[in-house]
Amino acid sequence: MEKKHMVPERGTEGIPVALRVPSISSVSAPAAGRRNLHAVLDPEVPEKAARRRFTAAYKLRILKEAETCKGTSQCGALLRREGLYSSHLTTWRRQVERGSLEALSPRKRGPKAAPPNPLKKRVESLEKETQRLHHQLKQAEIIIEVQKKISEILHLPPDPNGEER
Predict the structure, then answer these.
(1) In angstroms, how far is CA 156 from the centroid of its own chain?
(2) Which residues does 93 contact at the CB level (< 8 Å), separation at least 6?
(3) Measured between alpha carbons, how far is 164 from 158 in angstroms, rounded to an integer?
(4) CA angle, residues 84, 85, 87, in degrees to nearest 5
(5) Measured distance CA(158)–CA(160) in Å, rounded
(6) Residue 14 burial by CB count (10 A; 0-12/13-18/19+): exposed, middle or buried?
(7) How far apart are CA 43 and CA 64, in angstroms?
(8) Using the 8-state DSSP alphabet, how is residue 19 labeled?
(9) Closest CA to 26 of 14, 35, 18
(10) With the C-alpha atoms ordered 7, 11, 14, 19, is the resulting torsion angle positive or negative?
(11) How far apart are CA 25 and CA 9, in angstroms?
(12) Which of 135, 59, 132 lies closest to 101, judged by CA?
């Protein structure tokens, strides 16, 4: 068997093998004769790295998995697999102890329901009774007004006791 030496493509000499992108040949036949196009990774580093955010459910799941690990090697494998540091576990355990991790769990949105008022039923019944009595009072006032008008029309003298007839 004959061994062939791997020669890096033009422009990829300084890039590690794991980061090299295979060359992309152009679609048209005339351009294929000229040379292959190479996709090179952008060497620029972003100005500010995006901060990772972990949900409360994720933190609890990882803590449970870390508790089930039998040795430090299994725990280390878990941390490598998830891309975490041991300080994450320490911080999250403290949060669980303080109870602040439960505060991060999702809650129902919107206004909170008011606690039931024990006097609410009593107030409602009294308001209904007040409305009923106001209605009866208005009816009585209307009847008295009608009686006054009838006595004026018929020219009846008012009762000497102060009562109307």
Answers:
(1) 78
(2) 63
(3) 6
(4) 130
(5) 6
(6) exposed
(7) 39
(8) G
(9) 35
(10) negative
(11) 13
(12) 59
- Six-digit token pair at 49? 């790295």
- The encoded tokens of residue 164 equal 């109307």
Give residue 51's identity as a one-letter amino acid code: R
In sequence order, the β-bridge partners of residue 37 are: 24
Alpha helix ranges (H) inside 69-155:
72-82, 86-98, 100-103, 120-153
Tokens 């972990």 -> residue: 54
DSSP code of 162?
S
Tens of pLDDT, residue by residue over 100-143, are: 766 666 667 788 888 888 899 999 999 999 999 999 999 999 99
Strand partners, 24: 37
| Encoded tokens for 146 | 């009608």
> Could you read off the pLDDT of 58-106 as tens digits, one per residue?
988 999 999 998 888 899 999 999 999 999 999 988 888 888 766 666 6
Q: Quickly tell me which residue has 């300084």 as its tokens.
A: 14
